[in-house]
Amino acid sequence: MKLSKYSFVIKRGSDYVLYNCWTEKMAVLEDRLRDWLESGDVDHIQDVHPEFYDYLLREQFIVDNEVNEVEEVVRKWKEEEEREDCLSLMVNSTLDCNMRCWYCYEKHRANTDLTPETVSSLLKLIRKRITNPKLKSVHISFFGGEPLLNFEKTVFPLLEQIDKMCQVENKRFSVSFVSNSYLLSEEIVDKVHSLHVAQPMTVQITLDGNEEMHNKTRHLASGEGTYGRILSNMRMAVNKDVQITLRFNCTGNNVRTFVDVLADLKDWSTEEKSKIRIDLQQVWQDMPRTDVDMQVEFKKIRELFTKEGFNVNEVRAISKSRCYGDHANHFIVNYNGDLYKCSARDFTKENREGILTSDGDLEWNEKRALRERIKYGNSACMACRIYPLCHGGCSQGKLDQQGVNGCIKHYTELNKVKIIRDRLEFLLEHFV
How far apart are CA 353 and CA 332, in angstroms? Predict the structure, then answer.
């Protein structure tokens, strides 16, 4: 037997904690057990403490000498990513938008409504997939551009057709939107909820600081501000049971103004607040400021909003979850039938990874094949002790970093130690 390559002995105060970054199991160690583990003398533990030895083996802190742990990790990831129980489609119903945000990576294009040909191909695709007995649910998410621009013309008629198919085949059906919500109305919510959806619709909405900062960034093409109308529409929606992910797009210039947003939401009822999940995100195009520590500011925001009864995403150094784009049954269909796997890049011909054919088949290209080849990282990733936590980042990041032989994330050993410590503290704080 050997100590797992993913097991770490971390000093925490006067204690030593054994932590495995693959299983996320933890144990506090006696000094003698720590000495034996760190020296690699794991077999001696079996002689003096057989019950603890069995626990270490059961929880994979120690593994058989012949076990290839990297293969086990990748095998589990593949199992998860190749599941057939859910078909998840993101549809770009248009690439046009009613707003002009400075950091948007998309080039907004007029006259890019979902075409009848793409609608026909989408429905054929779903008809082929929906009869699979392993499939239990269908989720349709609308992106853009601003997907509510053509809700009546193309989005709702498409949803009605998919709803009928899910009814016939007895599949769970759910709907979500990534929308600036300027056009969100009672009529739109009522129409979506008139379908046989398994749960209320969900909408991701973004704020860019307080009213002043937000209106400088997230304004209409005419320059008119949108903050007040977004809050009004959001309140209407939660009172119709819509679940909101309220994304705070933070920059060095606006992060300290979100306290004003709290003041604007403070009189909302407990029930209204319960339907909102706040998601703190840093705008990646933002130039960092030396006088603003974003992690410190995020922690302050989280504490303030949590105290007022809001659900706020955890502030953490690293997340174990893998990207939705790596799942075989999740893909993006553009208004013209082009296929993509990542929603964080512009929807251009150069970036497309395939096309949806007129028969409803997925015809992938070499870019998609390359993504599949590199999505589990390079040799440096697989040799790394924090591989289960980091996995080299998302597959899009790996595509962007092609040719890098060492660490794709450019982590030093000190960075890796900090990641392990931060993850351990996060788990201890929230789950113990």
Answer: 10
DSSP label of 150: G
Q: Which of 258, 269, 271 is closest to 302 using CA atoms?
A: 258
Q: Which of 136, 150, 171, 134 is nearest to 91 (CA)?
A: 150
CA 180 from chain centre, in angstroms, equals: 18
Judge whether 390 and 409 are in contact, CB under 8 Å.
yes
| Contact between 214 and 226 (Cβ < 8 Å) | yes
Using DSSP, state whether 303 is helix, strand or coil.
helix
pTM, two decimals, is 0.93
Nearest CA-CA partner of 91 in 180, 166, 153, 158 = 158
Residues 6 or more apart whose CB falls under 8 angstroms from that of 265 comprise: 231, 273, 308, 310
Within 13 Å of residue 287, how many CA atoms lie on the same side as its CB? Answer: 1
DSSP string, 349-391: TTT--EEE-TTS-EEE-HHHHHHHHHTT--HHHHH-TTHHHHT
What is the average pLDDT value for the chain, to the nearest integer? Answer: 94
Tens digit of each residue's pLDDT (9 = 90 or more) over 395-408: 999 999 887 889 99
Q: Angle at CA 385, nearest 5°, toward 380 and 390?
A: 75
pLDDT in tens, 285-314: 888 888 999 989 999 999 999 999 999 987
